[in-house]
Specification:
The chain is about 45% helix and about 15% strand. The chain is α/β, with parallel strands linked by helices. The chain has two domains: about 190 residues, Glycogen Phosphorylase B (Rossmann fold), CATH 3.40.50; about 150 residues, Rossmann fold, CATH 3.40.50.2000. Strands 3-2-1-4-5-6-7 form a seven-stranded parallel β-sheet, sandwiched between helices. It has a six-stranded parallel β-sheet with strand order 10-9-8-11-12-13, with helices on both faces. Helix 5 runs parallel beside helix 6, helix 8 crosses helix 13 and helix 11 runs parallel beside helix 16. It starts with a strand and ends with a helix. It binds uridine-5'-diphosphate. The site of uridine-5'-diphosphate has 16 residues, from helix 1, helix 13 and helix 14.
Length: about 375
C-alpha cells in the first residue's frame, strides 16, 4: 500500500491540515500518516487544537526540545531521518514555512523521497524573515507544489519550476474555517470577556517584538488604540517573554486592554469575525480575515500573501502610530474596503490536494 506522510510542528501547521483525513478516507488504497515534530508543545499552542479540531493523534511524535533555531532544525533532521529510514513513505507533505517544514523536506529529499509543499510559492521577498528562507528552501526541494493564490504560481514560474508539477488547490486553512464555522458561531468568548466594540490584536514576528525600541513603540500604539475601543490581545509566548524581558508590562496595564493567553482556534476566529478590525503580524490571520470580510491591518513591511491586499480586506502598515490610527479612523467611519474572497478559497482545497497527492503516488 502506498504511504503518504504529513509532517506538522506548529499551530499554523495544524490549522492547515484539519480536513486532510476527511478526504484521504475516500482513498483506502493509500495510507495517510501524521508526524508531529513537537516544535510547538504547550497546551495553548498545540494540544487545544487537537482537542477542538478533532485532529487525530499523530502516528509519530518526535518530541523535539526547545532550543535555538539551528538546534531545533538539526534535532528534527536527526530524529526524522531515523523515522523515515525505518518507515519509508512514498510522499512527504509539509505545510507552511516553519522550521519543521524545512527540516522534514530536507531529510526526505536527501533520502530520495518526493516532497509536496502545501502553501507553495508564497514570497515576502524579505530574507530577514526566517520563514522566507524556509519557503524558498522548501520549494527548491519540492516535487509537487500546492498553491493557495495566483502569486504563488507566478513566483514559482519565475523561479523556473515546471508548471505541470503545480496544483492550484486553494487554501486549506480556509477549509478549516468553513468546516468549523457552525461551532465557531456558538463560542461565548465575547460574553465571557465582556466585549462590545473591540479590536483584536496578535503580534509575534521578530521584526516587531524582538527589539526593545520596536516593542515599546508597539505597546504605546496599543495604548492609543485602547482609547478608541476595547483591545483584546492574546499574547504569543514569544511576545510575552520579550515584554517581561524588556520590563514594559506597565505600558499595557489599562482596563481597556485585555491581555490573555493565546486562544483556541474556535474562540479566536469567533473574536476575529466580530472585531471592528484585526491588527496583526500573523501570516494566516491575514487570510482568515479576508475570507470573513473583516478589516485587517498587517503591521509588516511586506506580505507573502498579496491577494489579501489586492482582493481582500488586508492593508499593510508600518509600525507608526499615525498610519495605524488613520486606518482605524477609516474603518470606524465605514470608509474601508470591503474585499472579495480569492479564487478557490471555497472549503474544498484539501479535497483537491488529496486527489493530487493520491494521483502522484499511484501514477
Ligand atoms: N490563532 C489561534 N489563537 C490565537 C491566535 C491565532 O488559534 O490566539 C490561529 C489563527 O486563527 C491562525 C493561526 O493561529 O489560524 C496563525 O498562527 P500564527 O499567527 O502563530 O502563525 P503564522 O500564520 O504567522 O505563521
Amino acid at each position: 500500500m502506498k504511504k503518504i506522510l504529513t509532517c506538522v510542528g506548529t499551530r499554523p501547521n495544524l490549522i492547515k491540515i484539519t480536513q486532510l483525513d476527511r478526504w484521504f478516507a475516500e482513498y483506502p488504497q493509500v495510507q495517510h500518516a501524521l508526524l508531529h515534530t513537537g516544535q510547538h508543545y504547550d497546551d495553548k499552542m498545540n494540544d487545544i487544537f487537537f482537542r477542538e479540531l478533532g485532529i487525530r493523534r499523530p502516528d509519530v511524535h518526535l518530541h523535539i526540545p526547545a532550543g535555538t533555531q539551528v538546534q531545533v532544525i538539526s534535532a528534527i533532521m536527526t530524529e526524522f531521518e531515523k523515522y523515515i529510514t525505518a518507515n519509508r513513505p512514498d510522499l512527504v507533505m509539509v505545510p507552511g514555512d516553519v522550521n519543521s517544514t524545512f527540516a522534514c523536506a530536507f531529510v526526505a529529499q536527501r533520502h530520495g523521497i518526493p516532497v509536496a509543499h502545501i502553501e507553495s510559492g508564497l514570497r515576502s521577498f524579505d530574507m530577514t524573515m526566517p520563514e522566507e528562507a524556509n519557503r524558498i528552501l522548501v520549494d527548491a526541494l519540492a516535487d509537487l507544489f500546492f498553491i493557495t493564490e495566483e502569486s504563488g504560481r507566478i513566483n514559482l514560474l519565475k523561479e523556473g519550476k515546471p508548471e505541470e508539477k503545480m496544483v492550484f488547490t486553494g487554501n486549506t486553512m480556509i477549509d478549516s474555517l468553513v468546516a468549523f464555522m457552525p461551532v465557531i458561531e456558538k463560542s461565548t468568548v465575547r460574553q465571557q470577556l465582556g466585549l462590545h466594540k473591540y479590536y483584536l490584536l496578535t503580534f509575534h514576528r521578530p521584526v516587531n517584538v524582538d527589539e526593545p525600541k520596536q516593542l515599546t513603540l508597539l505597546c504605546e500604539i496599543i495604548r492609543h488604540i485602547s482609547q478608541r475601543a476595547q483591545v483584546v490581545f492574546p499574547v504569543h509566548p514569544r511576545t510575552r517573554l520579550r515584554i517581561q524581558e524588556f520590563g514594559i508590562n506597565s505600558l499595557l496595564a489599562s482596563p481597556n486592554i485585555i491581555l490573555t493567553e493565546p486562544f483556541g482556534y474556535l474562540d479566536f476566529i469567533h473574536l476575529a469575525k466580530y472585531a471592528m478590525a484585526v491588527i496583526t503580524d500573523s501570516g494566516g490571520v491575514q487570510e482568515e480575515t479576508t475570507y470573513m470580510g473583516v478589516p485587517c491591518i498587517t503591521v509588516r513591511p511586506s506580505t507573502e500573501r498579496p491577494v489579501t491586499v489586492t482582493e481582500g480586506t488586508n492593508t499593510l502598515a508600518r509600525l507608526h502610530q499615525d498610519e495605524i490610527l488613520s486606518l482605524l479612523t477609516d474603518i470606524e467611519n465605514g470608509n474601508y474596503k470591503k474585499g472579495n474572497i480569492p479564487k478557490l478559497w471555497d472549503g474544498f482545497a484539501s479535497k483537491r490536494l488529496v486527489e493530487a497527492a493520491v494521483r502522484f503516488v499511484t501514477a
